[in-house]
Amino acid sequence: MAAVSVNAFAQDMLIRNATVHTAGPQGSLNASDVLVQGGVIRAVGSGLAAPAGATVVEANGRPLTPALFGGITEIGIEEVSGESATDDGALTLTQQPMWPEFDVTLAYNPASVLIPVARVEGLGFTLLGATTGGSFIAGQGAVMRLDGSADPAGPRALFIRLGSPAASLSGNSRAAQWMLLDQLVAEARGRMPSDSPHALLTPAGRATLARYLAGNGRIVVAVNRAADIRQLLRWAQRENVRIAIAGGAEAWKLAPQLAQAKVPVFVDALADLPADFDQIGATLENAARLQAAGVAVGFSQSGDASHNARKIRQLAGNAVANGLPWQDGLAGLTRVPAQAFGVDERLGTIAVGKRADLVLWTGDPLDVAHTAEQIWLDGRALPMRSRQTELRDRYLRDAGGLPRAYSY
To answer: What's the pLDDT score for residue 57?
Structure first.
C-alpha cells in the first residue's frame, strides 16, 4: 500500500448498533453507535444520527474494538527472516560494543508486505523493536501505525536484553550485565571521562542514554528469570528510570513489587514450559496473577513475531482462558500498550477525540475462530487483503483445464 496523508481518504461514517468494546472507562456498550468525522471519533452512544452524506455501517450487534496492538515486532524492518539483507533490526559492530543511539525506525519500510498481512487481522499498531546483535543494549524503536505512515507515532523506546540469552554478549556472565550497565550510567551522567580508554559509549550514545535516564522514554527490558527481574527493579529504582518488561515468564513471582513500581509487563501467554533455565517457573496463569496484583499486563510473543503477529490474539485469549478477565485481555492489546509507549492520547481506546482506528469483528476478537471483518484507520476503510490472501485466492481458483496457479 502506498503511503498516504493521515486523513486523505477519511470519510464521515456512522457505525450503528455495535457491541462497542471501548477498552476504556466505559467498558463494553451494547447496541451502541460510533460517529466518525474527519478521521476522529466524534460521538459514542445510542441512537446517533448520521450526518448528511455519511456512510452508515450496520454492525448488527457485532463487536467493535480499537485497532489492536501487534506486539513488539520487526514489521517493516524485516521481510524474510532467513535473508539477512532484508533484516535491519540488529546492529553488530565489533569495534564498539554499545550503541544505544542505533534507531531501527530509520529503516522502516511502510510498503512492507508484512503490514497488510498484520492489518487484515485487526492490528493497527506495533512497537518496532531493536533486537540484540553485538550488544545486550539493542538500540531504539518506537510505535508505528500500520496505515502507511513512514514515521513513528510516539516517542522512542530503548531495548535491552538481560539474563542468559544475552550472556554471550556480556562476557558469558549475567552478573557482568549489571557491571556494564553501571558503567554506562556513569558515562551518560558524566561520572566517567568521555576520553577514557575504557569508555563504552560514543558522544551520541551518552546523549541518548542520558535522555532515558532522565525519564524521557521507556526502557523495554527482555527478561524472564525472577532473580533478574528483582535486580532490574532495584536498578530502575536506584537510577529512577521508566521500564517495561517483555517476556517476564517468571514475573508473577514478583507481582506485588512490579505493581508498586508501576512496571507494565508484556507477556507471552503461551509460555508454560521451561524452555530454558530462565523460565523454570513459567505458567499459563502468569497474566492472571500479575493482573490480580495490579500490574498492567500487555502481550507480545516470542519467536517470529513479525510474520506471526496475528497470533497475538491467541495469546490474549489464552490468558483469558487461564483466569485473566476478558476486559483486561482486550486492554492488553489496546489501552495498556498505548499508555506504556506514549500514544494513548490518540490510540488504544474508543472515545471522543481519539483516532478512528477501529475494527469490526465477526465475533469475539479474543477467540481465533472469529476474524476481522473490516479495519478502519483514521476512519479510512482499508482493503482486507494481503499477499497471503492473494496467494490463497490464486491457488484456490478454478483454473479450468490448466493446473492451479496458471489461470492467468
So the answer is: 97
